[in-house]
């Protein structure tokens, strides 16, 4: 039994538990790093209340936000491409001309580990200031063993420097580096035989991702990367069906992927494959918005099939230069027509599942889960997705520690 002095109480709150809003008013008791009890106030007797340190009364509480898809470690800037796109040049065309991801690769290779860390820290801090307590960070702008590992090391260090759980993903198969022009298979061999083993040896990767697309890698090439990841015991995920339908999501699902991400071009067969595998559909409305995409992900089919839908920022220098998780809740509703409850679940319970962390109770407010909590100055949980308004985070609790407010 935890010591009395260690128990803290949030009382009379409106609680979104990661999947739904519970009848108000609720009480949440935290003991040390974990949630001990979640109950209607009417069930908490005087002795229980008296034994707890009072933390706050009233407000809306959600799990700490889980941003399950970011690329926030990178060098350089791509603001010039924004201007080109406004003049009508497409994202694919910029990539084919050697810009896009490859322009960030050049800048990231040139940057020292220290410089990358210094540039990424305020980006991660921006997510934290908006309530994120778990953030996934991908590599993918190094595209050789040394620079991919450099990025992952920066990601790990960020998680040590700031009060946030950082999950790292090796995205070696993000784009074809210039040294391997016309030799995609040769580069995939490097990813499988050198990059993945090196990342595993240093304990730097929690998962492996690929970009399955005509401007990146084929389904067959991505499948080889997954086989190598599996051989090293790493979970997998995929950027798939973002610009066209190659069937990458279905292939990833066959390999038991944690998630398929973007998926604007996903078809019914792809939806069924995700459902069967228990994979999460990660929706990225920031990239949809930034690229002025018009093809909507198959939301209704995903909903009908009961595929869990996560929402993430995709924070990156090209397709989603957006470091604002609650804005993504709004975009998920306005652009993709999710309900506010679906959007919130997408950045809490389902986001955690897309990272393979749901089993630990992450992304939920329930007894036994890590005490990652946000208390918001809003009237209802839905209002978080409604207004676009920074500064509403009243309190942020990470691993039982109040880190804000
Ligand atoms: O998630 N789709 C590919 N990768 C990233 C974009 C990275 C970039 O443009 O720098 C994405 O959108
Ligand atoms: Fe991405």
From TrEMBL:
Zn(2+) binds at residues 69, 71, 239, 314. Its EC number is 3.5.2.7. InterPro entries: Amidohydro-rel, HutI, Metal-dep_hydrolase_composite, Metal_Hydrolase. GO terms for molecular function: imidazolonepropionase activity. Its cofactor is Zn(2+); Fe(3+). Fe(3+) binds at residues 69, 71, 239, 314. Gene3D superfamilies: Metal-dependent hydrolases, Urease, subunit C, domain 1. Pathway: Amino-acid degradation; L-histidine degradation into L-glutamate; N-formimidoyl-L-glutamate from L-histidine: step 3/3. Its main location: cytoplasm. Binds 1 zinc or iron ion per subunit. It comes from the Bacteria. It catalyses: 4-imidazolone-5-propanoate + H2O = N-formimidoyl-L-glutamate. N-formimidoyl-L-glutamate binds at residues 141, 316, 318. 4-imidazolone-5-propanoate binds at residues 78, 141, 174, 242, 319. It is found in: Cytoplasm. Pfam families: Amidohydro_1. Residues 60-401 form the Amidohydrolase-related domain. Keywords: Cytoplasm, Histidine metabolism, Hydrolase, Iron, Metal-binding, Zinc. PANTHER family: IMIDAZOLONEPROPIONASE, IMIDAZOLONEPROPIONASE-RELATED. Catalyzes the hydrolytic cleavage of the carbon-nitrogen bond in imidazolone-5-propanoate to yield N-formimidoyl-L-glutamate. It is the third step in the universal histidine degradation pathway. HAMAP family: HutI. Belongs to the metallo-dependent hydrolases superfamily. HutI family. This is Imidazolonepropionase. The gene is hutI.
